[in-house]
Amino acid sequence: MSPERKENYQKSLEKILDKLCFENRKPSLLLHACCAPCSSYVLEYISYFFKITIYYYNPNIFPEKEYLRRLNELQNFLSKFAPAQINQVQLITADYNSKDYLNATKVQEEPELQTEKERGERCRRCYLFRMQKAYEYARTNNFEWFTTTLSISPFKDAEKINTIGKFLEQQDGPHFLTSDFKKNNGFLRSLQLSREYGLYRQNYCGCIYSSENKSLPD
To answer: φ and ψ at 175, to 5 degrees?
Structure first.
């Protein structure tokens, strides 16, 4: 018996965008974002298809001054990035409390998670935690779609991210926009845009454990 083929999330995304073009409509989308570099290509790619509001919810980022640096960089980038300006991309900043991240991932109760490299169970719990918050905000505020920029990183597991998104979608709320934004040279384009706009690119994902256990992408 042949193994089940994994979904091609880039192809799934292209089908959704084609359908929106055919319908000639621009629905609302809440985009969970972690930083300016990861947002750059995603906004360039999909902001013409959706009315986008960015949801900056990242209490995993440590320390707080790093969280604020990434937020400020994102705010500055949006103010000068043409696709964001032309398509009137909005930004919502959620509360920052690092204890929320610790409680959600249980990394203190399960110390083996602290030494994992990225893409492991600690990261999966972090994806779920932040995406759940984005989903709840999108549902409460009547967004038609929601998604995250996380899949643009080669350090992130697109399979886990999309599995979580599809699970949340089943809770009678907004649709989840499947994606693997690193595909079609998306990650490369984010590097180009970062250089073009002089963006600060952090050298670790965000949490203290990702800083201590850096790994190379697959």
So the answer is: -75, 150
Q: DSSP states of 41-59 as a string? A: HHHHHHTTTSEEEEEE--T
Burial-class residue 16 by CB neighbours within 10 Å (0-12, 13-18, 19+): middle
Helices marked H in 106-185: 121-140, 158-169
Residue-wise pLDDT tens digits, 79-131: 999 999 999 999 999 999 999 999 999 999 999 999 998 999 999 999 999 99
What span, in angstroms and rounded, lies between the C-alpha atoms of 13 and 19?
Answer: 10
Contact in structure between 33 and 56 (CB atoms under 8 Å): yes
- How far apart, in whole angstroms, are the C-alpha atoms of residue 115 and residue 118? 9
Helical residues (DSSP H) of 63-180, grouped into ranges:
64-80, 82-86, 98-105, 121-140, 158-169
Domains of the chain: 9-212 (3.40.50.620)
